[in-house]
Amino acid sequence: MDKFEHEYGADQIQVLEGLEAVRKRPGMYIGSVSIRGLHHLVYEIVDNSVDEALAGYCTHIKVTIEPGNIICVEDDGRGIPVGKHAKTGISAAETVYTVLHAGGKFGGDSGYKVSGGLHGVGASVVNALSQWVEVTIQRDGGIYQMKFERGKTVMPLQKIGSSEKTGTKVRFLADDTIFETLEYQYEVLENRFREMAFLTKGLKISIEDLREETPKSATFHFEGGLISFVEFLNKNKEKINDKPIYIEKGGDFPLEIAIQYTTSYSENIYSFVNNINTIEGGTHLEGFKRSLTKVFNDYAKSHNILKEKDGNLQGEDIREGITAVISVKVKEPQFEGQTKTKLGNSEITGIVQSTMNETLSAFLEENPNIAKAILEKCISASRAREAARKARELVRRKNALESSTLPGKLADCSEKDAKKCEVYIVEGDSAGGSAKQGRDRRFQAILPLWGKMLNVEKSRADKIYNNDKLQPVILAVGAGIGNDFDINKIRYGKVIIMADADVDGAHIRTLLLTFFFRYMRPLIENGNVYLAQPPLYKLSKRGMQDVYCYSDDELTQKLEEIGRDGINIQRYKGLGEMNPEQLWETTMNPETRILVQVKMDDAIKADETFTVLMGDEIGPRREFIEKNAKYVKNLDV
Hints:
With 637 residues, this protein is α+β, with helices and mostly antiparallel strands. 35% of the residues lie in helices and 21% in strands.
């Protein structure tokens, strides 16, 4: 990677404001004090090291989770400047860690060409929200160290030795008086660092977890960059173009795009700005979509694959089955919102569009067989979209003729405020009957389903509208599906899947979750989907109130508490075994029930999981089952 030739010393560290209020309002700076916010601390320090890599000075970042949940991040970059800062009167390194918005990433005279992170907020926020931080810097022939406690300097920067190496090592322990938990999830960090390594071609990122007796570790290093990223995303899918289409541009706005088509029906496009995942897209994604639609339509018309009378293919037709990663580097990015999930720089749209127009057009001309195969899929998608439109209109006309547009088996609630309402999607008529009798009719609706439903991973939208198992779900939720889905139109604030605690119930849950993920994803992203947790066991004894246990561990604990003498243990096989009162008491009463909210912290991991479990490829599914079989409990045989 080319080095950004610019002075990086104490004078390049600019101070914008002091470090107040971070400990009082941590959510403003890291989003939350949950485990997500805890992981954010690690990302902020690693982002600083990645910025050194983007500037061309860092080749290896090593992250270690030490016993006691201590984090250590070490890089071989230039090292934070150690000279005295003119404005603060203390070392530049200490300034970075004690003053909010102090860093080498501001303005035209900064020490970086582009950067991610929180633009200088990261290091000081991590310091403010940690019990202690220890920073060791190798630079200018010396080894320097400084220490902090809860944002306060306890050991100013001092030279502790000599070294010809360069780099920065940061060790910290998050503050347990601020965060809900200090237990880092290795898999979450591992996935994030894999993503970072894909996005920074040639950078090596290592992670090691030393908390358990058997350490876990992984190293990520991808010379292929985004090509490797797309190949990784599609490893379990059947490809149309074996090698991803790669688009690259240098200059003031470096740009990389990798595109690969598969035989699947879902669209997976991931966009990044300065290695930050812009999950809401923005101007770079807009330019990508515009170009993709234009280039494929122009090629199809010029090669008589589409006739003028056919009109144009729609963008959604051309994006069916696509996996693409877009990565742009912008010196002064304008993000919408503190969490940086949408890029706002208007000039980026035209840059992405013009670059893609030229490169993608040339690729299609040079690879007519691939172009034809992709366009055949696009035209097939267009026909399916038209069939879906007709099916949708048919459903609407049919419902307009009926007394109600709601499914016949739905027992609705009386409350009209959607935020206060919840719908239970219940497996089977028997359980549905008990649920209808046991519910609170004011705010709880019941929708019984029967039999196995459609696996949408292998189906297009036209099949879904005509499916008698999914149509009631679409009508009950009331917000449409796919590109027509409108989260503001949902009829229930909670959509609760209530299935038996057995293999068939697990299958029903997986099929429904696949449907929600592929066709109502905002429902999951907005936190509206829940899983009901019916009890596994009922303990009964004469003269004793019935006790319900929701896991094997809880059963063991309860038996130890009340003893085994005279205890009758009933293992529930299905919801239908419970009468309405029991179902209400154990699974539906807001005061006593257990609901698991379905979250989607990592869309890439979720997409991979659904592809493996519900897709056409048998090999990856077998491998997944063999790897995870040891974790299965209560498997009915």
